Amino acid sequence: MTRAESGRVRFPAAERREQILAVAADAFAVAGFHGTSIAEVAAKVGVSQPGLLHHFPSKDALILALLQQRDLQDEQALAAEFAGVDASTREWLVAHCRRNETQPGLVRLFTVQSAESLDPAHPAHEFFRERNRRVRGHIVRLIERDQETGRLPASLDPADTAAELVSLMNGLQLQWLRDPSVDMCGIFETSMRRLEKR
Amino acid sequence: MTRAESGRVRFPAAERREQILAVAADAFAVAGFHGTSIAEVAAKVGVSQPGLLHHFPSKDALILALLQQRDLQDEQALAAEFAGVDASTREWLVAHCRRNETQPGLVRLFTVQSAESLDPAHPAHEFFRERNRRVRGHIVRLIERDQETGRLPASLDPADTAAELVSLMNGLQLQWLRDPSVDMCGIFETSMRRLEKR
DNA sequence: GTCTATAAATCGATAGAC
DNA sequence: GTCTATCGATTTATAGAC
């Protein structure tokens, strides 16, 4: 294995990018950013390491593109599912959870990277800061609307409750990844119904 | 900087070990296992890299010793605080939280390593599996005792509730590390009081 | 679009002197 | 208990050919 044919199996750039992102998603989800080498990703894709860097200029650019793409995809998929539906906070979050239950790889990617990115030197540090801000803001609005319609008690502090719900969801994901027998969404829904009771 | 004096500033083994563990705790908490090099830890301690490896035979041994020591220390400190006290689940867990609030470095170490150790190849994979099992088991017993004394509703499922409380605590830690303005323990206590009602 | 070749740095770990 | 020296493997990234 050295030369013979070289530059074999060419793909359109867009397609090759998707292949790389798919393999990188698994790798970063399992071993984290520093535990994954782009050479290892390239090998699994079936391309040389410089071949990979032709599509993504650096390792930092790769993981950032990966997280942004997957986050956007997931957000849009769920938004489409709830287009025009007047869902309660519980319905919306439980649906999100059920969706997560079908894609453990994606959950693991974001759980691992979320913790790793606490480091200001991590390439996705700002990405996760902003993402967290956005998610909490969204939930705050859901809660406030539920309070107006009486679906949630007015006594709840929207900001604190949003922080609690995000925390519970993130923590349950970690528990579930470590032990899949944990009823992630069942426990979350039980907790949300307790919130609804006066 | 080369030779001149060499082997300077000797320390008793026990003391040097503690110095190494202290520096390693910060490093692994910030950059994770793969993001930290033992040479970097050694330099901050003021010892050569082989000098460090004299006290811990490998990088794996270092982080494992670190996690076990810190976990044991923390567990004993809190156990001493509650010696002979008949604390409720809420009191016990909130006290744990308040203690955590005073040591963000330790919280960060365990939060980051907990996620990173989802990888079966991580040196602390089994450590965190076992630790999680133990912690949840302990909380299950606290809940069952509170149910017997009527401090918690008998309708709660102890195992699911323990998983929920551990998840909420872990998730809040992540939120708090990312944004220290989050009222980690206040939110946790509010959630626990909601559990007690009804 | 993909490769080979290689640079330049860093990694964990060992050997052996003091 | 600590060091220097060094091995061997691995890392990200670039240069340049096809």
Automatic annotation (TrEMBL), chains A, B:
Keywords: DNA-binding, Repressor, Transcription, Transcription regulation. Residues 14-74 form the HTH tetR-type domain. It comes from Amycolatopsis tucumanensis. Coiled coil: none annotated. It comes from the Bacteria. PANTHER family: HTH-TYPE TRANSCRIPTIONAL REPRESSOR NEMR, TRANSCRIPTIONAL REGULATORY PROTEIN. SUPFAM superfamilies: Homeodomain-like, Tetracyclin repressor-like, C-terminal domain. Residues 37-56 bind DNA. This is TetR/AcrR family transcriptional regulator.
